[in-house]
Amino acid sequence: MAKIGKQTQFSLTYIFLALWAVLLIRGLVVSYTAVEEVSYSEFLQALDEGRVREIEVFANFIRGKMQRLTAEGAKEVSFATVRVEPELSEQLKRHSVAFKGVVENTLVRDLLSWTVPILFFAGLWLLIMRRFGPQQQSLMLGKKARVAMAEDLKTTFSDVAGVDEAKQELEEVIEFLKSPQRFTHLGGKLPKGILLVGPPGTGKTLLAKAVAGESKVPFFSLSGSEFVEMFVGLGAARVRDLFTQAKEKAPCIIFIDELDALGKARGMGMMGGHDEREQTLNQLLVEMDGFDATIGVILMAATNRPEILDPALLRPGRFDRQVLVDRPDRQGRVAILRVHIKGVRVAPGLDLELLANMTPGFVGADLANLVNEAALLAVRHGKEEVGMPEFQEAVERLMAGLEKKNRLINAKEREIVAFHEIGHALVALCLPGTDPVQKISIVPRGIAALGYTLQVPTEDRFLLTKTELENRIAVALGGRAAEELVFSDISTGAHNDLSKATNLARSMVKEYGMASDLGQVYFESERRSPFLQTAMGGSQEYSDHTARLIDEAIKAIIIGQYRVATRILQEKRNSLEGGAKLLLEKETIEGEELKRLCGAAPEPPA
Ligand code: ADP
Ligand code: ZN
């Protein structure tokens, strides 16, 4: 569709050019050929005197050759004359009136009759075009997706900071793009679709560009939201076009920003979904399945809402790799600030660590903005270099805006979150048989969690003992226990933990027969097909009395483990306070510092 549009447009331009040329030439020919225009009476006289040699008679004029008597004798000239009504000319001749016919010069009129409509339509076209965004404009003109070639992309990994884990995961992609053949030769598994997941402004687009820049391949980019406002059918055509182009330029990267706008689960939303979006999404899936990864086209996409994506997009062979691009911690912010002050003349000895301390919750885009704002303030203050006062003022300004957008948590909340997370970590560190703690962080992650404690199992487990399950419950409750211990008050932040603890306890009682006074009985009804289950509701195969006992057993487990958690934290009160302080300061704790947190040898509670 788009292609035809382009061709027609081209040929139209040529036709117009040709017409102009014809009209111009006609005008020139008419005015410059050596035909002498004579008056009609002169023609009649010549006719009378027998001097006219040959004539051609047209409806309005007569053309021919005649002898002309000059001082040097008779000479033949080509002539043309405009005819005058025969009777009138008779009469005029009788009265010896000199007369001639006149042809109106129609050149100007002809030109106008051509140009006015053309100008009119051109104006109309421009008017229509102005009402659409540049994206639709280029579509209507049949232009292809914008292509930024590798030369344009000077972005490298050194421009992206504070997201080292994401960078590490993308190394392999760069390796692949640099020489796809070599990579396949060595038997590497080919990456095809990579989903960058993270909050807005954390540098997902920047990372994708850096991958293109590092591997020196072309970078095609599109935004998912552009498709949604398109005319029906164009989105799909556009996707097809994009892949055709990309395959020609392989190895290359296709980047789709805001994949969620395009890739929302089908059938969601009002009125049975958005037809255009679904068509486009389907086309995208078709194209993704339709190319062989060996040619070296890598699809990258960014989203901050992976949970609403159509599951079809995440299937193997599509976006089956997800890379988390998280908010930076304090160290990360220092690194990002270092990147952005490169182009700015800052006061010597500017304390970036201090700046990072002042900006918890800021993402890369905010920090870039901060440096920019500070530089502007310095100009306004008439300073030669950007110093701490400017940065301080800029932080205050940006803070206000970000707080309104609810992106930052305030100091009190940070403190609660810090104690909460240390609570989880300490309980986990002190109880035997729990998964080792890898990292504690109060950098908000994703949408729901304000902080997190990362526990990674050292081995795959198929069997868990009763004690291990109990310990897990205690760890889940550790956050809330710490809050209660320190603040004598509790917050809503534990809601996820409670559901996790309760689910574990329920399984222990109902499925694993681990509640002593209920005996080794299995109370969970067998899993049915999901359709049946919803139809029948939660059918219950035990008496109300047993139900009460089950509830009580679950409650007993929870209360017992909450006590365990509280006791550990009471004993480790110093570690709790120290850890929270450290966490507030550094935002993440891992490795050696983590080991030191609990003291050398964590003694199990008696
Ligand atoms: P996203 O795509 O995640 O919304 P962008 O990549 O568009 O974020 O980031 C916007 C701008 O913010 C970038 O152009 C860059 O200047 C700055 N920025 C964001 N993250 C980082 C980072 N990790 N390191 C350096 N600059 C960053
Ligand atoms: Zn928690």
Task: Outline the structure in words.
The protein is α/β, with parallel strands linked by helices and 606 residues long. The protein has helices spanning 2-32, 40-48, 86-94, 107-130, 134-140, 164-178, 180-185, 204-215, 224-228, 234-249, 259-263, 275-290, 330-340, 352-358, 364-380, 388-404, 411-430, 466-487, 495-510, 530-536, 544-571, 573-586, 591-597; strands at 36-37, 52-57, 61-70, 73-82, 147-148, 193-197, 219-223, 252-257, 297-303, 321-324, 437-441, 452-455, 588-590. A six-stranded mixed β-sheet has the order 5-7-8-9-6-10. It has a four-stranded mixed β-sheet with strand order 1-4-3-2, covered by helices on one side. The protein has a three-stranded antiparallel β-sheet with strand order 12-11-13. Strand 3 (61-70) and strand 4 form a beta hairpin. Helix 21 crosses helix 22 (573-586). The radius of gyration is 41 Å and the shape is elongated. Mean pLDDT is 80; it is low at 1-7, 142-150, 528-537 and 600-606. The structure holds adenosine-5'-diphosphate (ADP) and zinc ion. The site of zinc ion has 5 residues, from helix 17.
